[in-house]
Known about the structure:
Layout: H1 3-13, H2 18-29, H3 35-39, H4 43-58, E1 61-67, E2 74-80, E3 95-99, E4 102-106, H5 111-120, H6 125-134, E5 135-140, E6 143-144, H7 152-165, E7 171-176, E8 183-188, H8 190-216, H9 220-225, H10 228-239
Antiparallel strand pairs: 1-2, 3-4, 4-5, 5-6, 7-8
Amino acid sequence: MNAATLLDAWERGAAQAPLRRALTLLSAGWPEASPEELAGLTMGQRDGRLLTLREALFGPRFEAVAACPQCGEKLELAFSAQEIRVPAAELAESHCVEIDGHQVRFVPPASADLLDVAETAAGSGQRERLLGRCVQSVSRQGGSVEIAALPETVRQGVMEAMAQADPQADVQVALDCPACLHRWSMAFDILAYLWGEIEDWAARLLLDVHTLASAYGWSERDILAMSSRRRRFYLDRVGG
């Protein structure tokens, strides 16, 4: 991905909700894939690709800061992409779970499912809409059961099973506080992390474009077409 492509994705994504923003980034990173194909990826598969995209753009090392919920101590943490990547072989397409005598077959939610839910339902209706899109069949004692007839315990159990079936979508980083020895887990959102980096990168790049355009009269297109090494060379000359 070149600078112009990523900058265009940043500009479009800035006005989008996170679900749409993720698809914008995936479209920029995998232009050969159709929008339907990308929207059909499970959330874990989506996040796996975002992790790959982040490695290609900024490298495999992650750094973050967390506060201990017990004593408030600030922790600096670092980890690699490999440490939070779930092997693709573990992501099955369809799953079956038994809850209170009900056999439920389902697929993990994809971006298309969550977008549909967000745009067509509200409140408690969102969970029902999601179950309706992701549950393929329900049976009990050999007979078919309608989703609307499922007990609350089964509905909740299916939602939990969906999360467990797509582990890349729920990455937890284990933390230990050196001050009070408290242990806990912190959810890691690759989309939020990557988008923050892209925003910082875009701000720096546009400032570089402004500097070079002002100094040499070059167009934005010409400046973006340069390699980062060549841009830096000219910026150093301007600064000198």
